[in-house]
Give the backbone structure.
Amino acid sequence: MELLAVQLKQDTHCTVRDLARHYSVSTRTISRDLALMREQGMQIDADRGRGGGVRLDRNWGVGRVNLDYSEAVDLLISIAVAEQMNSPLFLANLGSVRRQLVASFSPEKRASVNRLKSRILIGVTASTYVQASAKAPPKRVVQALHQAFVDREVLDVRYQREDGATSERQIEPHYLLLKYPIWYVVAFDHLRQEPRTFRCDRLLAAQKTGTRFHLLSKEAFQPSLSHDDLSV
C-alpha cells in the first residue's frame, strides 16, 4: 500500500480502473486497499461521478517519523489518556493518529497495548491544595516506574510522605491513576501488606527488583482509591 500511497500523492488525477490496470489487480482489490488506507487515517479524496479520480492529500505524511515499539506504545497510551480527559482542544486529529499507530501493530501487540491502557485510570482534577505541592519526580524514577509498570515488576522505592517522613518500601505497580496534573501509582505495598496509592512525585528513588507479580483486579484497590487526596 505504500507504493499506492506514493502514487496517489503524486498524481493529480488517477481512477480506480487506472490503478487496477497499473498494478495488475482487480478494481475490487484497489477499492479494498483504499478503504483500508482510510481506516489507517490517510486522507483519500475522491471525485464524484463517472470517471472520477482519487488522490491522497499532499499534506499527508509530511516528515515521516520512525518510532520503535516502546515509543509507539507510549504515544498511543498518551493519546488514549488525552481522549479520556475529553479536552476540547487539540483533539481533532488524535483519532487519525491513533488509527495509524494501531494499524502498525500486530494483533498480539494490539492486545498487549489494550491491556496496558486498561491499567491507566483517569480521575477528577486534583484539588488546588494538592496541585500547589506538585513537583516533577526525578527522571530516573520515572523511567524505573514506567518499565516496572509495563513489565509488571516489583519496585524497591524510597517514598516521602506529606509530613516529610521517608520510608523504604517494595511495591507492585498494578495501575496508574491520573488526577490531573498529579499521577499516582496504585500498588500493593509489601511493607503494609495491603493495597496503597502513592503520589509519583513523592517517589525519591526507584529500582526494579527483577521479580514479577500477578495483576490484581481494580476491585482489590477500591479502598485505597476512596481517599480524596490519595496521600499516604
